[in-house]
Amino acid sequence: MRRCEASWEVLSTGPAFWETLGLAPISGPKNVIGYCVFPFSEDILDTVDAFLKSIGAAYESSRLGNHFRARDVGGFFAGLVPAKASDPLTPLSMMTGIWNVCIQLGAALADQHDEANTHDKSDATVVVYLVNPFSNSRSIGFLCHAFWALFQEYTRKLKESRSRGRRRDIVLQLMPIGTLASLDTVAVPESEKLSRLSREVYDRCPPSQIPDDVSVLKIFTAASIYLKEPAPRQIPFRLTNEPSQNLLYESSHLHVAYACSTDKKWLTAVWTDGAGQYQTNLSYSLVGERAFDGVAQEIWATCLDIMRSRRVTWRVVLARVGLMEREEMNGEI
Fold first, then answer.
1. 96, 146 in Cβ contact below 8 A?
2. Which of 185, 204, 223 is the last residue of a domain?
3. 57 vs 51, 124, 261, CA distance in Å?
4. pLDDT tens digits, one per residue of 206-231
């Protein structure tokens, strides 16, 4: 992390004193524009507006960058995107309202694309705070699908209008409705939780700039905090026909972890280095005739593509969430 433009190395307890020590992210500032999609109700309208102000203040006070309030666009004012459900109010009608308003927001973002690229906020990432009004954990899948529909509508409208300029990155941040409103108590977001949430949003956003270094991997994420990597005990200077181009990165580690959903229909894999500087994840469908062996081959192909950026000796560390089944143990990567 940084303090006063200088890199700092602190113990694991250091991030708890982020505000006190005046710390800043090691990867530099990332500017964002916030929108909040929430179930429409006059009772929580002011609460959602206050949340956007609070998260913006927490983001900027943590020196993570600028957190702009969205301007009026597509009939949505100040970043507030209410999802109106039809009567009678049921989970299905609420899902339909969220789905429709996400598509409307995607179209509105595309319509203002050319104007935004001439504005001083053109490098800002769009962050969609999607309030989850459901108590069932399965609803998370639907909300992610609604966000995907938003992104698809955004890209479709851009292709139709043949807009020029840099396409904005759009990031999803799910918010349980209990953090904003409650039926029997006053929900007041704590400053510490807002600070952690702001750093989580920062880590989700893509890097504002890529380092000019040939050893940078394709999955550079620019997180707010890196783990300290130990210095190599020795530098392997040898007279060989094909010397390493990145001697300081010899014996680099690539950690690969995966997990299967409870219904065995999806597998999600995550790649990272030892310091957390490089991260990415992908989900694979296991529905139909697609077996684990085929997915394992795709995971390994991704590993090779990542490691290709450095011509060094790599060590791949594989882990699984839960017990590894016989089919996975017998599978070949």
1. no
2. 204
3. 10, 16, 37
4. 887 777 666 788 888 888 888 887 77
